[in-house]
Amino acid sequence: MSNEEPMNRSRRGRRPAGEVRAEVLEATSALLADEGLRAVTFDRVAARCGASKTTIYKWWPSPGALAAESYFSRSEKELVFRDTGDLFTDIRAQLRSFVRLLTEHGGGRVIAELIGAAQSDPDLSAAVSERYTMPRRLLAIDYFERALERGQLLNGVDVNLLVDQLWGACYNRLLIPDAPLDIAFADALLHSTLRGAASAGYRSTLQ
Amino acid sequence: MSNEEPMNRSRRGRRPAGEVRAEVLEATSALLADEGLRAVTFDRVAARCGASKTTIYKWWPSPGALAAESYFSRSEKELVFRDTGDLFTDIRAQLRSFVRLLTEHGGGRVIAELIGAAQSDPDLSAAVSERYTMPRRLLAIDYFERALERGQLLNGVDVNLLVDQLWGACYNRLLIPDAPLDIAFADALLHSTLRGAASAGYRSTLQ
Amino acid sequence: MSNEEPMNRSRRGRRPAGEVRAEVLEATSALLADEGLRAVTFDRVAARCGASKTTIYKWWPSPGALAAESYFSRSEKELVFRDTGDLFTDIRAQLRSFVRLLTEHGGGRVIAELIGAAQSDPDLSAAVSERYTMPRRLLAIDYFERALERGQLLNGVDVNLLVDQLWGACYNRLLIPDAPLDIAFADALLHSTLRGAASAGYRSTLQ
Amino acid sequence: MSNEEPMNRSRRGRRPAGEVRAEVLEATSALLADEGLRAVTFDRVAARCGASKTTIYKWWPSPGALAAESYFSRSEKELVFRDTGDLFTDIRAQLRSFVRLLTEHGGGRVIAELIGAAQSDPDLSAAVSERYTMPRRLLAIDYFERALERGQLLNGVDVNLLVDQLWGACYNRLLIPDAPLDIAFADALLHSTLRGAASAGYRSTLQ
DNA sequence: TACTAACCGAGACGGTACGTCCCGTCTTGAG
DNA sequence: CTCAAGACGGGACGTACCGTCTCGGTTAGTA
How remote is the C-alpha of D166 from its chain's centroid? Predict the structure, then answer.
C-alpha cells in the first residue's frame, strides 16, 4: 500500500520532459508487472514516480493507454519476423514464440488485460492497435505475400484472413479460455490452416 | 444524470425475491443498452430499480457478472444449431448469423465489453464462459463430431481446434479491430478453413 | 505535512453518524486553531479524522461552512447578554468582552477569515449569519428594546442601527485594520454613540 | 470555458512593459466584472491577455493584489470630498454616494470580495488599505478636523472614531448582511451619529 | 552584415485541493 | 427480530490553480 517510494526530490519547477516521461513509464512498468493493469492508475503512478497527475494527463489519455505504451515499448525489440524461405518452419517459429510470450513470464495476462480494457477505452484501443497488434499483423502479411510470390501459398489465398486464422485463434484461446493455449495447439493450428492454404508441394510436407 | 427514476415505492419490507431479481435485471439491461457496460454499476442499478446494494450483492458477485446474466438471459433462446446434414451450408448459416449478431444490433459492443471486462474479473469470466461461449462451443463441437461420423471431415481433424479457427477468428476481428468483421469475411474464412479440414468430396464443392 | 495522524481504524463500513460528525468537527477545530482557515480543506480534514470526503460533503457545503460550524459551536456558550438594568455598564461589558474576544486568544483572526471567506461563499455567509452574527444582533436588539421601554434610550431611536454603530464599528476595525481595535476604542465608541442615543438622564452620567 | 481569446500574437520577444501591464489590468477588470474575484487567477489572466505568468508575478504578489489594483485604479477619480462648509449636507452627500457605490453598480460585491480576500492575503490587505480605505479615511478625517476648527463638532470628539461610526457601520452592513444597506440607513446613521457629536447649534438642525 | 551570447516570456512541472463516482462493508430503522 | 436502505471509508477520476523552473526565440553585443 504505502510502498510507493515517494522519491522525494525537492525540485518543484519544470523538469526535462524526457526525464519525466521515462520515470512515468518506469513506474508504470513496475506497477503493471507487480499488480497488473488494475494497479495502473494515474494516482498511483504519479505517487510512485514523483510526477504530477497533470503531467501524466498531458501525455496519456487514460491509464490503459499509459500501461499500453509502457508495456509495448519494451516488446518492440521483438519485432522480428525471420524469413528463411521455409514457410512452415518460419510460421511455426513465430506462432510458438507468440504462444510462449502469452503463456510464460505472465505476459499473457498483461496483454489480455490490455485488450480487455480496450473494449471500453477507445484511446487504449487505438494504442493497442497502433503499437502492438497492427504492426505484427503487417509483418505477417508481408511474409505471406512474399510466400505467395514464391508460390508457397495457393493463388487467391487471402493473406489478411490467414492472420486471423492463425494468430486470431490464439488470441481467442487467450481471451476466451474455454480451451487451453499451448504449443501443441499452435502446431495443430498451423497444420490445419496450411493444409487449406499452402500449395500442393508445401502441403505434402505436412505430416 | 438524476434521471434514474427512483420508482418511489414506500415499501421497505421484503418483496418476493423473483420480483426484485427481475427488476434488477431489467434495470441492468436498460443501462447496458443505453450507455454500455461502464454504466452498469451496483450503485446505478440499485438507484434505478429501487433495490438496495445489499440485495444485489447477494445474487451477483460483480457488476460484470450482473451485466452478463442480464444480457445472456435474453440471448439463450437463439441457442439453436441447425443440422441439415449439409456441413458447408449449416456452418455458413451459423457463422453468418453470428457475424450479424456481432455487427448489426449493437450486440457486438456488449459482448466485446463483457469479454473485455472478463479479463480482469474472474467472476465475469466464469459467467461469460458458462452462460455464453462454452455452450456455443459445445454445440459446434457436437455438430462437427456428427460431421466426422458422416465422413464429411477428414479423419484426425481436431474439432475443438476447428471452433477456434472459425469462431475464434471472428472474435479476433471483434476484439482486435484491425480488420473488418463482415459476412464476406465469414464466408472466406469458412472456405479457407474447410479446404483444409473437409474431406475430398466436400472440398470439391468449394469453388 | 504528514503529521495528520491517520488514526488507522480498520473499520470500513458505516459508523454512527454522531461519532463521525464529532470527529470531523474536532479535526476541523484543530486545523483552524493551528493553521487558520486556509488549512481547513476537505482533504486535510478527511485525512486527519479518518472520515471520507463523501461524508463531509454530505453535511457541509464548503470548507468554510465546516470551519464556521466548528468554530461557532464552541462559542455558543458565550451567548449571554447580562441585563442589570444599567444600560451603560451592560453595553460596556458586552463591547469590552467582544473586543477581547477579537483581539486576544487569536479569535479575531478566525472570525475575520470566516467573514472574509463568506464574501465569496454564500454557504459560509449563511452559516456565519445564522450561527454567529444574527443571534448576537438579536440579543443586542432585545436588550436595547428593553432599554427603550425603560426610558433609557430616546424615543425613536433605531435599535437596529445602534447595533451597527457599536458592533459594526468594531467589525470595521477588525476587517479593515486602518486603525487599532482595543478597549479604549470600545469605550470611546460607546460614549460617543450613547451621547446621541441615550435619554437626557442617562447621557448626564457619561463622563 | 475556452473563450479566453488567446489573442494570437506571434511575437515572443519583449514588449513595452506599460503595454503589457495595461493588457493585464484590462483582462483582470473583465474577469472581475464578469465572474467576480474568484475568477481572477494568474492562470486565467495570463491566458486571457496573452502574457505569461512570469510577467504577472513580477508585478503583483497575488491575484488579489492584482484585482485590487485593477479595480481601484478605476475608482481613484472619484476621490473628491466636497467641503461646502455645511457639515451635515457634506457628510450626507458622501455617505449617500458611498452607499450608492456599494449597492448600485455591482461595486459592492467587488469591494466586499476584495476586503474578504484580504483577511487571508496580507499583500491584498496592504493594497486595499493603501489604495482604497486609508485614503478615504484620511479625506474624512481632514474634513472632520476642519469642522472641528469651525466649531461644528464638539470639542474632544475623536474624528478617527467618527469615521468608524459612519463608514464602518456601512461596511458592516455590506460585509455582514444581516440588515439592509440603503440610503435610508445612511441618513438615519448620520442623524444618530451627529446627534452625539455635533455641537449644539448643528444638532438643532437635525429634525 | 553575419554570428553568437545573454535574456526573458511562454508554458510545463510538482503539489494540493476540488467535487464526483464507485466499490465493498457496516449500522440502523422500518416492517 | 430480520433485512433492505443507504451512509460509511477508501480510492480514483479529471480539473483548476499556485509558485517554480526549463526551454527556446528575440534581441543586443561582438566579429
Answer: 15
Decide: residue C13, CB within 10 A, 0-12 exposed, 13-18 middle, 19+ buried. exposed
Establish if B53 touches chain A: CB-CB under 8 angstroms: no
Nearest to A27 by CA among A13, A9, A6: A6
User: Which position has the grid cell 494568474?
Assistant: D42
Q: Does residue B39 approach strand E to less than 7 Å at its CB?
A: yes
Give me C176's grid cell: 479593515
- pLDDT of D77 reads 65
Q: Looking at residue B16, what is its pLDDT?
A: 65
Neighbours of A152 (CB within 10 A): 21
A56, pLDDT greater than 80: yes
Query: Residue D195 — very low, low, confident or very high, per pLDDT cuts 50/70/90?
Result: confident
Residue C39 reports pLDDT greater than 70: yes
The model's pTM is 0.85
Phi then psi dihedrals of residue C7, to 5 deg: 50, 50
In angstroms and rounded to an integer, the radius of gyration of the C-alpha atoms of chain D is 21
Nearest chain C CA: its distance from D101 CA (Å): 17
Determine whether the distance from the CB of C9 to the nearest atom of strand E is below 7 Å. Answer: no
Provide the pLDDT confidence category of residue C22 given band limits of 50, 70 and 90: very high
Q: Which of C32, C35, C176 is the best mutation test for D, with the most CBs of D within 10 A?
A: C176
In whole angstroms, how far apart are CA A139 and each of A71, B102, D36? Answer: 19, 28, 59
Quote the Cα angle for C179-D179-C172, to 5°. 5
Q: How confident is the model at residue C3 (pLDDT cuts 50, 70, 90)?
A: very low
Percent of chain C with pLDDT over 70: 91
Distance CA C133, CA A73 (A): 63
Closest to A113 measured CA to CA, from A35, A22, A27, A47: A35
Number of H helices, E strands in chain C: 12, 0
Dist. CA A81–CA A144, nearest whole Å: 11
Mutate which of A136, A163, A178, A199 to disrupt the B interface (most B C-beta within 10 Å)? A178
Confidence at C15, pLDDT banded by 50, 70, 90: confident
Q: Is it the case that residue A154 has pLDDT exceeding 50? A: yes
Provide mean pLDDT across the span B145-171.
Answer: 94
* Confidence grade of residue D5 (pLDDT, cut at 50, 70, 90): very low
Measured CA to CA, the distance from residue D70 to residue D22 in angstroms comes to 9
Cα distance between residue D27 and residue D31, in whole Å: 6
Residue bearing cell 455452450: B135
Q: In whole angstroms, what is the distance from residue A33 CA to residue A40 CA?
A: 10
Is the Cα dihedral B18, B20, B25, B29 positive or negative?
positive
Max CA-CA distance within chain C?
70
D12 touches strand E (CB under 7 A): yes
Cα separation of C43 and C47, whole Å? 6
